Task: structure prediction
Amino acid sequence: MMTKTNGFVRRIIVFALEVAAVWVIGSLLREVLPAYPVGIMTIFCINAVLALSWNLISGFTGQFSLGHAGFMVVGAYTSALLMMKAKWPFLPSFITAGLLSALVGFLVGFPSLRLVGDYLSVVTLGFQYIITAILNNTTKLTGGGLGLPGVPYVTSLPVAAVTLTITLWILSNLVNSKQGRCFVAVKEDEIAAQSVGIDTTYYKVVAFMISSFFAGLGGAMIGHYMMYLHPDVFNYAKTIESVSMVILGGLGSLTGSLLGAMCITLLPEVFRNLATFLGGMGMLGPANFLRRGWMVFYATGFLVLMLTRPQGLLGRRELTWPGFKKWIGRVVVRKEARP
Amino acid sequence: MQQFLQQLWNGLAIGSVYALVAVGYTLVFGVLKFINFAHGSVLTVGAYIALYSVLRNWLPFPLAFGLSMSLSGVFSYLTEMYAYRPLREKGAPKLNLLITSIGVSLLVENSIVVFVSPDFHPFPRVLPSAPITMAGMRIPPVDLLLVAVGLVLMCSLSYFVNRTLAGLTIKAVALDRDAAALMGINTSKTISLTFFLAGIMASAAGVLIGMRFSVNPYLGGFFGLKSFAAAVVGGIGSVPGAYLGGYLIGMLETFGAAYISSNYKDAIAFVLLVFVLLYKPSGLLGKGTQEKV
Result:
């Protein structure tokens, strides 16, 4: 018992140190680097939180949600309005944003998750349209279709990086716990899970609420980063962005989501810079094509990935430090074994 | 009363569109048991084929309409052939099919934006635009065409599925694919046929909705989604259910916009969807299925 408690305390301390280190490194990078790479890194952290939250419900629990943007928008508006209208400080409004998203997730998830099948995808997608219609029409509170300017800027690189660290820590502990195993059991075979006494509806709803919670946090970070909100920012394409990050990295792999988020965040930047470079060289035709054509490239890549490697880059494996050392060891051994 | 009749007619017209697209979702869901998110993009492709054939004066409108329907049918067939069949043969999980269909719709939408044009195109005037006054209702000729084409296509599809041998194979495959294969039905051929039919119906809806509003790359995503809601409301897998769901959502939407508030028009379909899922998950005309080991 004693050792167990000590292990828990030790893990908490290690985690606190990690968070502190991430905060310090984030602050340092913000001071040292120019604004452009810092911006990309911040967006990467936000995207990674969104991808991780989608991965929990779809990658681990196997319930396909297509209305993730709906939960982001709930979080984004809640946090922004609490800070602007109710003059709350950042942290309480941020957490309230996540909690409200989770509550909405419960209301949306409960009717659709009782059913077997892909109904969740449609209901969540419909929910996203409903929430957009509501936000567009509550002009007095949210500014409606004119958008909500003047959202306070909070999401600096350290804030985003710390949020990502906390999200990753919670989710990796969750998926390796008893509850997490139940999520995976629901994904693998719902009937088999039921037959060993797993309340599938309960676990599906819980996973969906946790996923909505983090989606709400991600949405709130977007608002506090762009300093402006509009209901149409959080559209179907925004959901698909998170979906493609997870699929690229691997459904059911946390580090895969990080990898996927990194690739998808960098992709438009690479194309943009390449276009600027080609434009500078005088090749205007290809430059213009790249500027517009990256969307086709993205969609084609998406399809090719699904047809050739549907499990994503990592599949369900995780990138870990011991795994990395083992891999390095294998590579070295292979080289030495050569004549 | 007059306004009521007018709204009834409007609901019928827009409902025909939903019904035509919904039946495609239902047919494909019947044979493959997955939601084909790329079905809406077939509608967009159909609208663009008709638009360009008429705009460039390649073909007179009726021929362009026919060409658009057949080419979209072929397009739908090709998506099945090259995107879903390889996955199916590998025995990939259903989630992969779903994600692939999202990829297909992304590819179509983005290709149109990049290679054709991201703009909203009004359809060239091929019908007189003056509304016809009938029993106090003002009916644009396009609506008349919509309802008529909708009825003709739906009746022919029902006839085809229920009365011809090729149609009956679709029903058989939907009932039990393995058993159908054992009875000597070429299931791959039947699945291709299903996609072809779904494509024809969607493209007819796409051309007509393009004439009523405008042709744009996001047409399919928007109407496709609501039509899917219609298919689920009616009972996915049931052809009459798709018609019923389509007309029901069309009516509710127009009446909601006229008598309650037009701001929430796009949300009505999904509110109905949630209620139907809560109280009768198999849909209005669908048969409840029991998941078995």
Q: What stands out?
A: Chain B has a mean pLDDT of 88. Chain B has eleven helices and two strands.
